[in-house]
TrEMBL record:
Residues 13-269 form the Nucleotidyl transferase domain. It catalyses: alpha-D-glucose 1-phosphate + UTP + H(+) = UDP-alpha-D-glucose + diphosphate. This is UTP--glucose-1-phosphate uridylyltransferase. GO terms for biological process: UDP-alpha-D-glucose metabolic process. CDD domains: UGPase_prokaryotic. It holds the Pfam family NTP_transferase. It comes from Albimonas pacifica. One of its GO terms (molecular function) is UTP:glucose-1-phosphate uridylyltransferase activity. Keywords: Nucleotidyltransferase, Transferase. Belongs to the UDPGP type 2 family. The keyword Transferase applies. Its EC number is 2.7.7.9. PANTHER family: UTP--GLUCOSE-1-PHOSPHATE URIDYLYLTRANSFERASE.
Length: 298
């Protein structure tokens, strides 16, 4: 990892309305995929890529996220007193470490992903940085973010995670307008937000991982609200395209849209299929012989 990329921003202020009533009191980012919350997957991915500063753009009603992220000394002491040292050590290892910089910034109003990223400006400084959407779960080794940091060393500018989707699904994504494709890289001349399938410039959809040049903060600050009164990150990426460039990177992992109920279920089945302890449960539902990738697709 290059020394100039140290910061990852996690926009976690959303209300998670698609998972109500589960998210009435529990933030969506703390919903578990079997036994690990979405935010933990995101943090682990960032750590594997070498990031040491994590900025969480949250909402005042979601204090449970900060409680989860930071080490709980009282719980640690209680577990140790009860002889559960291994469990205490595991939880400490998952929480923020002493060498990591953890910042929480509040986004009181839902003014869009672009606005959420702009809120992190004071903690990023003048250097490239990453943005991870925790409900876009990407599983695989090496992690998507690690691949993208290495790829950004070649491309510079704005780099977005991209994957091919069915033509009919382009209406649900930002879609790259390609200039040149070279292996896993696609240089783009633009990005179209949720185009009609017949109008989509490609099938390369942008998903929740970005490595961005810090100049995007200037574009975000000047960005006028779009549809729904929100400041869109994709609009500001497009604004800086001629200045810093834009490329899509096709990562090697498997992506699950855990912002949807179907995607969350697929992720759980995918992970369950790789653990022998769940074999009987899957067998009871006729899933024991299915491959994990087949289950994820279904």
């Amino acid at each position: 990892m290059t020394s100039r990329i140290r910061t990852v921003v996690f926009p976690v202020a959303g209300l998670g309305t698609r998972f109500l009533p589960a998210t009435k009191a529990t933030p969506k980012e703390l919903l578990p995929v079997i036994d690990k919350p979405l935010i933990q997957f995101a943090m682990d991915e960032a750590r594997a890529a070498g990031f040491t500063r994590m900025v969480f753009v949250s909402h005042p009603t979601k204090g449970a996220i900060e409680d989860y992220v930071r080490h709980d000394h009282d719980l640690h002491a209680t577990l140790c007193a009860r002889g559960k040292d291994d469990l205490a050590a595991m939880l400490k290892g998952m929480a923020a470490a002493e060498h990591e910089e953890i910042e929480f910034v509040m986004q009181p109003e839902p003014l869009g992903l672009g606005h959420a990223v702009l809120m992190a400006r004071d903690h990023v400084q003048e250097e490239a940085f990453a943005v991870v959407l925790p409900d876009d779960l990407i599983l695989g080794e090496p992690g998507c973010l690690k691949e993208m940091v290495e790829a950004h060393a070649e491309t510079g500018g704005h780099l977005v995670a991209a994957m091919e989707v069915a033509q009919a699904e382009t209406k649900s994504y930002g879609v790259l307008d390609p200039l040149e494709r070279n292996g896993r890289f696609t240089r783009a001349k633009g990005m179209v937000e949720k185009p009609k399938p017949e109008d989509a410039p490609s099938r390369l959809a942008v998903v929740g991982r970005y490595v961005l040049d810090s100049s995007i903060f200037e574009d975000l600050a000047a960005q006028k609200p779009g549809a729904g009164g929100e400041i869109q990150l994709t609009d500001s990426i497009a604004t800086g395209l001629k200045r810093v460039g834009l490329a899509g990177f096709e990562f090697s992992g498997t992506r699950f849209d855990c912002g949807s109920k179907a995607g969350m279920l697929a992720a759980k089945l995918h992970l369950a299929a790789s653990h022998p302890e769940f074999r009987d449960v899957l067998a009871a539902h006729g899933l024991a012989t299915a491959r994990p990738d087949r289950i994820a697709a279904e």
